[in-house]
Amino acid sequence: MKSEKYKILVVDDERDICRALEFLLSRQGYSIDTAYDGNMALDKLRKSDYDLMITDLKMEGISGIELMEKALEFDSGLTVVIMTAYASVESAVEAMRKGASDYIVKPFVNEDVLLTIKRLIEHRRVVFENQALKRQLSQHMGCKEFIGESSSMQEIFELLEKVIPTKSNILILGESGTGKGMIAEIVHCNSPRKDHPFMSINCAAIPETLLESELFGYRKGAFTGANSDKAGLISMADGGTLFLDEIGDMSASVQSKILRVLESGELIPLGDTRVRSVDVRIIAATNRNIEQLIRKGLFREDLYYRLSVFEITLPALRERVEDIRVLSHHFVEQFCSEHNKSLSGFTNEAMDLLMGYSWPGNVRELKNVLERAVILCSGEQIDVNDLPDKLKKARTHASRSLKDMLCGFERKIIADALASNKGSKEKAASELGVDLATLYRKMKKLEIDI
Ligand SMILES: Nc1ncnc2c1ncn2[C@@H]1O[C@H](COP(=O)(O)OP(=O)(O)OP(=O)(O)O)[C@@H](O)[C@H]1O
Ligand SMILES: [Mg+2]
Predict the structure, then answer these.
(1) Residue located nearest, by CA, to atom 12 of ligand 1
(2) CB under 8 Å, gap of 24 or more: what pairs does 385-392 form?
(3) Which ligand lies nearest to the CA atom of residue 186 in the structure?
(4) Nearest residue CA, atom 27 of ligand 1?
(5) Domains of the chain listed by start with CATH number
(6) pLDDT for position 138
(7) Residue 141's pLDDT is what?
(8) pLDDT digits (tens, 9 = 90+) for 37-64
(9) Nearest bound ligand to CA 364?
(10) Which residues, chain by chain, have CB under 5 Å from ion ligand 2?
(11) Residue 442 CA to ligand 1 centre (angstroms)
């Protein structure tokens, strides 16, 4: 939404009229500029961006209609209001046919002018918001290809195939850069909800009070600065999908309000008394350890159960080394076409480096490394020299890297055993065939949260 003041240009060769309108409208918080003839107005329109222009119809030199036509030529989105004496209302109607949004009859009644301008500005605001919404949607709608051949990813695809057509909420867990955001988009644009909005919000990036108003919307006057009604993202996602990213960072108050929406399918915007029904599928994601947050009392258990009807944990890239190869080829192809290059893959040494690295930033890091490599590469294949030093340094510690891989493997087995036994360490230890003390020692060594 537009945050600065709306700018209005008032054009009339009677300076008193300009002054009267300036006085009237600036008291309403609009920013007013004045011009006393068509040329002066055009000059100002060229130099600055206005939301609305009020112009007299009959002026010396360039007439109001001519001015409007010229102004619309270089800013087709400008809202134009024509002022006219009662005797020439017909020409005002003619002006509306040519693109004016409304007209004001002189001598005017202040209240009428204010109402007209307010209505037109409000209309502009709605159009502006809709455009922003459409832009946001089109950004999301280009459904991307999710790459993964490892057995762990295949299992996830199988589960997704069953879940996507339903309305069930999904919780996506996984380290940063593993593709959580991408899965959320893919779920939406393959689901029956695909023709409705996909709204996404990063709960960690927005201060608590703002998050609440962004999600639930507000009524005019709900708090200082709430100058008009605003729809929240949950209402905007009606019929579609709401993606709550970084849900582990949501405050207790927002958590309880989200829970209410999930339980009742209803919400109340801030400052409103009316309840609204909404139909949204919620996909939530976090890279934090949600069970630990629950144990520490930072995340509501009841909300967790509501959100995690289906829980998907995306494995770290180092735990699915076989995906590194396919992903690498996929990204090189993508960046070659973006940067107009033609490369035939990797040298063996370069591929070994990629496969041996531990990728703490996961797929995002791999993607960035390969964009850089495609740009740098001057031969036919990406070579070791096109890859960053950190990968080469990791190779000089090859034994450590093997150890890392083994640790990763061990960590995954233990984490899986804990998850399938709902966190019970006794049961996990017995399933793994080790005693409880060994399990604790390993968890500590592998930095698994106890
Ligand atoms: N399997 C995949 N196939 C193709 N591209 C992928 C895959 N996984 C991730 N990516 C790409 O890697 C980047 C990071 O993915 P994404 O933003 O979805 O990660 P994330 O898990 O949401 O990360 P964060 O926790 O930091 O928000 C994106 O550009 C995404 O397109
Ligand atoms: Mg993300």
Answers:
(1) 364
(2) 386/350, 387/350, 387/353, 387/354, 390/357, 391/353, 391/354, 391/356, 391/357, 392/353
(3) 1
(4) 176
(5) 7-133 (3.40.50.2300), 148-313 (3.40.50.300), 317-396 (1.10.8.60), 400-445 (1.10.10)
(6) 44
(7) 47
(8) 999 999 999 888 899 999 999 998 999 9
(9) 1
(10) 181
(11) 30
